[in-house]
């Protein structure tokens, strides 16, 4: 978690230093959800989430270097520079991104679950969306089909209580997101700031969806940063609210205190870990900065898996690009 | 032998399902009802409910589910009862299916077919008559196919199902029951029509008639009539709208020096406008007449029979345009 | 109701005689819903429904002639021949059709309600959809916004138990459609074959939505015909099921028996009414057949309210159509 | 005086809301947050929550609600945070808003404006960079506008709000903060720019550069550079994409004998293909060179700065294309 925290804070600095462009959505505050989840899942299970995806990518085994390199549009990045902040993938670990369109990842996630069921491979799919996304109609459509077909799908609402500048109660008549399956699907709520609770919830959920069909897991969590880099994050909520959560519910502090209270780690050990992580992150930043931009020819790769020798048009009529066959 | 488009599509799916067990079909009424237009007849009985899935009327959701299943390695065939309803799901087709291979620099693939009836049917008015050929074929990352006859329907659909990329497959309701002659070769289990290649249906020397789907039939009819008037028309069946076969269009126009595009969709930024542009870009100096387009009239489709007829191209329009272009 | 019944049965015959083209969805069996509803509403309230709209049009004051003429594509038709079976409107009575896209009418209906609320005119909007449509995501999106904004909207699910060939339980994990508002919105169920119950339900609902915000009304009803003219309607349900409902729950028979049992009408009086209605319908058919097709120029009218002198393209390049300014 | 596009749009809405109390705004973050790009700044404070409505992130639903409210006589302005998200609602825009006046033979009207940022921004990758100009402008029943400068933004938006038909209003995120000089006349409360008319931004005699939105600026820049090389370029700002001003395009091309269309969207069946087709249809014999188009490259938008730059037209592309067309 500390690694994810440092990574996001460094991304913030890099953005402000104009090393990163476009949209960039940070995850600090919410780390326990990804860490707890990954403690309960296998990489043979599938995960898909929204644009706020840096931590999910690392949770699936991606490196911090790959995150920074992607943010800087480098070829060493998670998506070799073509995706950017919102679109990181780790196909070999069944991580399907990194989705920019609010709500769209939810049916996609149900489809991942359908594939696991179809093959009978024992895998489950986790499809993660925000409290703002939770009103999207395609989510209800997905609930219904997932329930009709008993898909092994865990629908995870990461409720950080705001969708951009809109508080949950202004977006949802019923902001108890774990009940939004109505008669269609059961749900449960979990303290998303408590990594151990999250792990437990996912362990239960995985078992449940394999045996009984889909389930909603609502994670009560909080984002410290603004929605994205252009949002100071303090016009629609009070600074007191933010600092209160930091003081009382921070997921990293909670673990630190648990370790200390139970005598599981000396403060010096933790400090050493922190130092090590800082070193790793700083090294990753340097490596990312040193990494190459994609070659210009990459503009024309990956349009299709089978480009069939197609002729594409460049910017000018004089530029016709023949793709490989 | 003769084969209807319905049987061509049905047999293509049947054989590909037999060949590859990751292929499955989903959509409204595709299973127990055997398809609103009976294209999936018998498949539930043969392959069971795991591989022939009735969905609720939730296009956005089931399209997204199909795309997710394709990401994870299955090969879904998603049937839209008609493509008009694909507008509810177009975000999933474009933003999810078409763009992921690129955004992930090749990590994520999406082998899926979206198929169903496209364009005008008969007497179904404005909301059920739209042609989506131009929209989908504008999107890099999609492949867009439109069969004309049973050979196309069989060979292109089999190619689409085997293709590793998302394919939009535009059928025509009015042609479903139409029988076309097919060769022995077409009946082969491994008969596929190459994606991205147009086909010369009839060779000619005075003008090239470019079309896709049902309009290829009109163009063939027009070519016959024109022959009686001493005009030799070449008929090009695009088959693929994305990628579009620029080379074949250019080669034909270089030969005939004239080109007319025929489609049922709306004119503005339609397929015809692209055909004209390709002709201009590739062979301006070869042209003996300005390239032209015959299109649907620029109106929402009216219901009344006389108005509907007045909104759609006919063989006569093609003949008249050609004669004008030939200065006759 | 008998008028609506005769009208639909005549439309069936006209279709089979190839006087009507394209899609044609009949309402026989469901008549009590429209008749009961209109007994409780004013024409200043708004109504919108799906493609199965002939009866709704007549319920809002349209004539049977206008229905037949529209079905035959005549200029005397409800939409002057441009809409056809699925698209009949009666703007002066706040009937907004006649919608061909499943589910799309539901947010539209919520928007009608928004306008009534915005103007404070005391009107309500009724937005009607089927059991098949009830899974559409935009319906849930509409529920949420209607509830957040307290819109005076009655969401009416006309549950005839099939969406084309799909029984409700195959389309919906939870086919209790009146509960589909979950925590967002209340709902109630009503016997849609009992015209008096329907009237009561709408009278209650109108009052309720004006005071407390939106409500779901599920109408338990049944369509006797197939989904549309191409569907025999007997492959996915048994003939016994259909004849059982006809025998036990027919909305017209029910009223006939009520009138008889309570001595409110002699059977001869009812016969006379029936004869009169038959005459009216037969006359309407003759009049519709005699009506004119739209003039060819109508192809180019009504594209826009303000066509601004635009030049439109005809089928051939040589045909450019200049619209009025 | 100078005015940014943001202020032009903001003042247009403000004044029209003051003028007509049936005008209201709805969309994500338009009220309390004052707009993701602050286009609606201050309007909640001035007109209150009844007329400036924050919506949940449910494009299909709130677009349908807007259209329904317009059917019933209100004049909604629906903001899409960007037009990329309008794909979730495109069925409501096309099937509900655009087609009802026609389907009802004029009974139902739909005075509504759909507005927001369209096309490429900076560094936002494939799902957030699509241009929808060609798709929407293909649909009869919609009006489609694209402002370039602050005069356009103010005058076209006011015209759109007053118009009785559904208008798709395509803005450009990158230009929001850009100041443009405006005349006194533009500041008038009743200043409107006529829908359906293109504007000559700069007169010239050798070639016509046709564009809309941000590309008009590129074309003006290119025209300056070309002047130094002795080439006189006329710059036509389309303003309206539907209806498109065929007469203005034809008149300009008849004068200059050459035409180049410039857009950021994809080429196939794009706006440029329509411009080429119009030029061919209207003035083939007047042409001294084949009409051409500069477009976005035919790829989903990549994120990396160098690739993104390589996917989009620049002033240099325009200059190079013109020189080639002039044989220089
Ligand atoms: C369909 C769609 N509409 C709007 C947006 C713009 N947008 C991006 S993120 C966001 C807020 C989402 O909030 P939430 O679901 O709570 O997720 P969080 O950002 O809190 O993780 C919005 C409106 C979008 N990307 N897609
Ligand atoms: C978005 C969309 N998808 C599919 C269709 C095709 N279709 C028309 S009616 C219908 C069944 C609807 O059933 P239901 O909502 O129960 O209404 P009913 O016909 O029973 O009145 C379908 C699938 C459509 N018109 N629109
Ligand atoms: Mg949130
Ligand atoms: Mg039904």
UniProtKB/TrEMBL annotation, chains A, C:
Q: Which residues form a coiled coil?
A: none
User: Which BP terms does GO give this entry?
Assistant: pyruvate decarboxylation to acetyl-CoA
Q: Which UniProt keywords apply?
A: Oxidoreductase, Pyruvate, Thiamine pyrophosphate
**Superkingdom per UniProt:** Eukaryota
Q: What is its EC number?
A: 1.2.4.1
Q: Which SUPFAM superfamilies match?
A: Thiamin diphosphate-binding fold (THDP-binding)
Which EC main class describes this enzyme?
Answer: oxidoreductase
Q: Which Pfam families match?
A: E1_dh (PF00676)
- InterPro entries this protein is in? DH_E1, PDH_E1_Alpha_Subunit, Pyrv_DH_E1_asu_subgrp-y, THDP-binding
- Keyword Signal (UniProt): no
Per its record, the protein catalyses: N(6)-[(R)-lipoyl]-L-lysyl-[protein] + pyruvate + H(+) = N(6)-[(R)-S(8)-acetyldihydrolipoyl]-L-lysyl-[protein] + CO2
One of the record's GO molecular function terms: pyruvate dehydrogenase (acetyl-transferring) activity
Residue limits of the Dehydrogenase E1 component domain?
1-294
Q: Which cofactor does it need?
A: thiamine diphosphate
Sum up the protein's function in the record's words. The pyruvate dehydrogenase complex catalyzes the overall conversion of pyruvate to acetyl-CoA and CO(2). It contains multiple copies of three enzymatic components: pyruvate dehydrogenase (E1), dihydrolipoamide acetyltransferase (E2) and lipoamide dehydrogenase (E3).
Note the subunit structure: Tetramer of 2 alpha and 2 beta subunits.
State the protein's name. Pyruvate dehydrogenase E1 component subunit alpha
This chain's source organism reads Chlorella variabilis
């Amino acid at each position: 978690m500390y690694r994810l925290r440092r990574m996001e804070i460094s991304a913030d600095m890099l953005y402000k230093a104009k090393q990163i462009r476009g949209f960039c959505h940070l995850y600090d505050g919410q780390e326990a959800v990804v860490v707890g989840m990954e403690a309960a899942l296998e990489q043979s299970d599938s995960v898909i989430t929204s644009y706020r995806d840096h931590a999910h990518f690392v949770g699936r085994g991606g490196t911090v270097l790959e995150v920074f390199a992607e943010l800087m549009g480098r070829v060493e990045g998670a998506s070799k520079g073509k995706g950017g902040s919102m679109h990181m993938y780790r196909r070999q670990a069944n991580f399907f991104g990194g989705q920019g369109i609010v709500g769209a990842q939810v049916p996609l996630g149900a489809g991942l679950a359908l594939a696991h069921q179809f093959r009978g491979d024992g895998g489950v799919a986790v499809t993660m969306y925000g409290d703002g996304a939770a009103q999207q109609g395609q989510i209800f459509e997905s609930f219904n089909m997932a329930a009709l077909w008993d898909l092994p799908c865990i629908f995870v609402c990461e409720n950080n209580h705001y969708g951009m500048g809109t508080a949950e109660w202004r977006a949802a008549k019923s902001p108890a997101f774990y009940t939004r399956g109505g008669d269609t699907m059961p749900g449960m709520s979990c303290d998303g700031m408590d990594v151990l609770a999250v792990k437990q919830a996912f362990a239960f959920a995985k078992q449940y969806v394999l045996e009984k069909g889909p389930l909603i897991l609502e994670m009560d969590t909080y984002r410290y940063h603004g929605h994205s880099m252009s949002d100071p994050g303090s016009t629609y909520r009070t600074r007191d609210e933010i600092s209160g959560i930091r003081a009382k519910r921070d997921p990293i502090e909670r673990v630190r205190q648990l370790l200390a209270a139970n005598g599981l780690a000396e403060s010096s050990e933790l400090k050493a870990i922190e130092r090590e992580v800082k070193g790793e992150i700083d090294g990753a930043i340097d490596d990312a900065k040193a990494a190459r931009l994609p070659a210009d020819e990459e503009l024309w790769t990956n349009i299709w898996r089978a480009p069939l020798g197609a002729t594409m048009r460049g910017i000018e009529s004089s530029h016709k690009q023949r793709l490989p066959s | 032998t003769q084969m209807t488009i319905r049987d061509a599509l049905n047999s293509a799916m049947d054989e590909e399902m037999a060949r590859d067990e990751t292929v499955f079909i989903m959509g409204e009424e595709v299973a127990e009802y055997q398809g609103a237009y009976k294209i999936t007849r018998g498949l539930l009985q043969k392959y069971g409910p795991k591989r022939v899935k009735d969905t609720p009327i939730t296009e956005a959701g089931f399209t997204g589910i199909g795309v997710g299943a394709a990401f994870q390695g299955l090969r879904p065939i998603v049937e839209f009862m008609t493509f008009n309803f694909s507008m509810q799901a177009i975000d999933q087709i474009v933003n999810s299916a078409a763009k992921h291979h690129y955004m992930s620099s090749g990590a994520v693939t999406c082998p899926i077919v979206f198929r169903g009836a496209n364009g005008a049917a008969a007497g179904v008015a404005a909301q059920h008559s739209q042609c989506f050929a131009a929209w989908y074929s504008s999107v890099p990352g999609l492949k867009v196919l439109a069969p004309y006859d049973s050979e196309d329907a069989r060979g292109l659909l089999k190619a689409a199902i085997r293709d590793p990329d998302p394919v939009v497959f535009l059928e025509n309701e009015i042609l479903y029951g139409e029988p076309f002659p097919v060769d022995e070769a077409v009946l082969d289990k491994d008969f596929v029509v190459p994606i991205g290649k147009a086909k010369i249906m009839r060779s000619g020397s005075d003008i090239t008639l470019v079309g896709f789907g049902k309009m290829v039939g009109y163009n063939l009819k027009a070519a016959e009539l024109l022959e009686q008037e001493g005009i030799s028309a070449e008929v090009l069946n695009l088959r693929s709208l994305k990628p579009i076969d620029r080379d074949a269009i250019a080669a034909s126009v270089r030969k005939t020096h004239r080109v007319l595009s025929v489609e049922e969709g709306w004119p503005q930024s339609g397929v015809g406008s692209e055909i004209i542009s390709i002709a201009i870009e590739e062979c301006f100096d070869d042209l003996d007449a300005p390239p032209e387009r015959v299109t649907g009239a620029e109106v929402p489709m009216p219901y009344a029979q006389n108005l509907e007829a007045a909104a759609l191209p006919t063989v006569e329009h093609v003949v008249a345009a050609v004669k004008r272009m030939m200065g006759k």
